[in-house]
From TrEMBL:
Subcellular location: Cell membrane; Membrane
Protein name: ATP synthase subunit delta
Gene name tied to this protein: atpH
Keyword hit for ATP-binding: no
Pfam families: OSCP (PF00213)
HAMAP family attached to this UniProt entry: ATP_synth_delta_bact (MF_01416)
Organism, scientific name: Mesopusillimonas faecipullorum
Length: 179
């Protein structure tokens, strides 16, 4: 079977182009896709949608009935298309790729910051400022605490990783000594 990101790419790109041609709605689509992805990540939802007694229209209505946000006609058609093609399980990856395309258009990126200890807002803002200069992008930070880092931070922006944690330094020293 094809990798999920490969399956999701054409759907994310087509949806992105459709929204861009409309000239508005990136944020509302992004929010809706995030909600749809969250729903699809639930085991009970995936199980209900795979019930062979339901046809595609019933699956679509069942799934959209769980959505709290208002669903436009175009969103209904998009979900129906995914269900009809057996691609609804790709929604989390579609949402991620759509958001990456949106961020690229806006000149922004998501920065996943992991720290060994909780960071204060001022520290986060200082770190984000330095990272924005380094990457040349406006960054949207998400901060998590990961005690296994021992000290320092690990930052992931797109496919780039900046790891200044004590754990990474110890791993590099171990590798150097073992060589």
């Amino acid at each position: 079977m094809a990798e999920l990101s490969t399956v999701a790419r054409p759907y994310a790109e087509a949806l992105f182009e459709s929204v861009r041609n409309e000239g508005k709605g990136f944020d509302s689509w992004s929010g809706l896709l995030d909600e749809l992805a969250t729903l699809m990540s639930l085991e009970d939802v995936r199980e209900a949608l795979s019930d062979p007694r339901l046809d595609d229209a019933q699956r679509t209505e069942l799934f959209l009935g769980l959505v709290k946000a208002p669903v436009s006609d175009s969103a209904r058609r998009f979900v129906a298309l995914l269900i009809e093609n057996g691609r609804a399980t790709a929604l989390p990856e579609i949402a991620e790729q759509f958001n990456q395309l949106k961020n690229r258009l806006e000149g922004t990126a998501l920065a996943e910051i992991s720290s060994a200890f909780p960071l204060e807002d001022a520290q986060v803002q200082q770190l984000v400022g330095a990272l924005e200069k380094k990457f040349g992008l406006k960054l949207k930070p998400t901060v998590t605490v990961d005690a296994s880092l021992i000290g320092g931070v690990r930052v992931v922006v797109g496919d780039q990783v900046l790891d200044t944690s004590v754990r990474a330094q110890l791993d590099r020293m171990r590798d150097t000594l073992a060589a």
